[in-house]
Amino acid sequence: xxxxxxxxxxxxxxxxxxxxxxxxxxxxxxxxxxxxxxxxxxxxxxxxxxxxxxxxxxxxxxxxxxxxxxxxxxxxxxxxxxxxxxxxxxxxxxxxxxxxxxxxxxxxxxxxxxxxxxxxxxxxxxxxxxxxxxxxxxxxxxxxxxxxxxxxxxxxxxxxxxxxxxxxxxxxxxxxxxxxxxxxxxxxxxxxxxxxxxxxxxxxxxxxxxxxxxxxxxxxxxxxxxxxxxxxxxxxxxxxxxxxxxxxxxxxxxxxxxxxxxxxxxxxxxxxxxxxxxxxxxxxxxxxxxxxxxxxxxxxxxxxxxxxxxxxxx
Length: 314
Description:
The protein has helices at about 1-30, 45-65, 70, 75-105, 120-160, 170-195, 200-210, 210-235, 240-255, 255-280, 285-314.
């Protein structure tokens, strides 16, 4: 028993060391040298020099993130996966809209309910029942399908970004994480929407102050994105519950490491907006193809860039 316990501890220690080594290799290949690992030969070590050095290294990392050495062919693999995901995602939305429209516009439901009689009452009742089921079950089915699709394609994508092997065991853990994580945030968003539609208490305040509702939704979106940016690379590197707590701690207590990268991402997004104004002069089909391609490329680059920031500072 004692030997088995020692063996398990050694295996866990080896896994942790491998994960740390993998994170260091990713950061090293990205060309990002964090100031904490840089030991100055001179014992200046003042706060001003630390901030200056970190700012310089963060900006250098930003520009190096566009080099092929940073991502290799994995960038194009993730781009293809995201393109497939977006296509299937909008395909699900379109299918849901078509089903909903067909149910709502069915001829068995008269526009004036006073026209219901004994001849069409059963057909109307059946149609209303189908609409009710679609309204209740539809969002649940969509959430399950979306989570499964994201866990598969997104899981492979994050494994490529962090240079980990995609396995069935990882997929199941990543799927369970997404059911809990996306379910939690979906519940929070629906709670805000529900409260804003109620008449008493908090709902009355939100309904009379739509600005507060909008700010609350924006805050939740920003918080969700920030936490997800930190969570997914760390969980992919070490798919266990402790990675979730580690991600939450890092997202809040080391948020200063993300301020400059976020500002740089925002600045790049504004540059792309200016480019977008220019290509709008092209034919509509050409414009849509170029705009969608650039948008996906930007999204993929953001995942690679933020993952390197997360892993380097974890």
